[in-house]
Specification:
This protein is of the alpha+beta class. 49% of the residues lie in helices and 18% in strands. Helix 4 crosses helix 5, helix 7 runs antiparallel to helix 11 and helix 9 packs antiparallel against helix 10.
Length: 283
């Protein structure tokens, strides 16, 4: 038999490890956890919407990392363009390159534009705040916001954070979580709230989740901030299934619970249904 026939008839042996599918590898829980990457991301997550600049000490306190580690990570993130060093302050600011990460997610399949059009329609009906939010640890963060001038006395903007347990967006998000993830969130909240968690916070939250199971929407009437009312629903992004919440809220004088439920809630529920349907068809 010729060498050529041997080559054609027998499988060719290749050196090295078998190639593993990248998607399967990403889902493999036994793959090593890259601590340096996690620490770098924790630096970026430590910046908040109202932070103009942050120094090494403040970032070390927020992340729990050693100052030497923080200093090294700041240097790397600055070289990559995600942070800017501000010599006049001797501190760091988040650069606009961070926006590329967020818009890559919310812009997928036109999801952001689709949601924004519905938010504009809802906000046009009265003095209210319409918000698209995602979870950030023990908080919810606004990633899109339509606000009317007289809606609230609070200083709310894109990037603002509100509490997970007491707010309508947070309660909707917790309701949409799987049991294991929700248990982890409860443990996080218990550590933050201490004794108040078992006595006040958890019972109120569980009652709110029970109402959402019955009614299909979350609510918070003066529980986050006195004089602020809101209702919220769950949205899921096409393809990934990522959880977002869509909420309407505002000053209780302009938006008592009865008005929220009779005027704004039907629009909110309809918007959520249409967004979900259109997102599914676009995918």
């Amino acid at each position: 038999m010729s060498e050529e026939n041997q080559t054609n008839d027998q499988p060719v042996r290749r050196r090295g490890r078998p190639r593993q599918d990248i998607g399967a590898a990403a889902l493999n829980e036994e793959r090593p956890f890259v601590s340096s990457l996690a620490r770098g991301l924790s630096i970026l997550r430590a910046f908040r919407a109202d932070d103009k600049v942050l120094g090494t000490q403040a970032l070390a306190e927020r992340t729990g990392l050693h100052k030497t580690t923080v200093s090294r990570l700041l240097g790397t993130l600055t070289k990559l363009g995600y942070l800017r060093y501000m010599p006049e302050y001797g501190k760091y600011a988040v650069s606009n390159q961070v926006l590329t990460l967020g818009y890559a997610a919310i812009g997928r399949f036109g999801f952001g534009e689709l949601v924004r059009s519905h938010m504009d329609q809802m906000a046009a009906e009265g003095d209210c705040v319409v918000a698209l939010s995602v979870r950030d640890g023990p908080d919810m963060m606004f990633v899109e916001l339509v606000r009317r001038p007289t809606a609230v006395a609070l200083n709310l903007n894109v990037g603002s954070r509100i509490p997970l347990a007491e707010s309508a967006p947070g309660r909707a998000y917790l309701f949409a979580m799987g049991e294991e993830e929700r248990a982890e969130a409860f443990a996080l909240l218990a550590g933050i709230h201490g004794d108040a968690w078992a006595k006040e916070k958890r019972p109120a939250l569980e009652a709110a989740l029970s109402r959402m199971a019955d009614n299909g929407y979350s609510d918070s009437f003066g529980e986050w901030v006195a004089g602020h009312n809101a209702v919220g629903v769950v949205l899921r992004a096409p393809m990934t299934g990522d959880i977002y919440t869509l909420s309407v809220g505002g000053n209780a004088r302009n938006l008592p619970p009865e008005k929220l439920k009779s005027v704004h809630l039907p629009m909110l529920m309809r918007a959520a249904q249409e967004i979900s349907a259109l997102s599914a068809s676009n995918f």
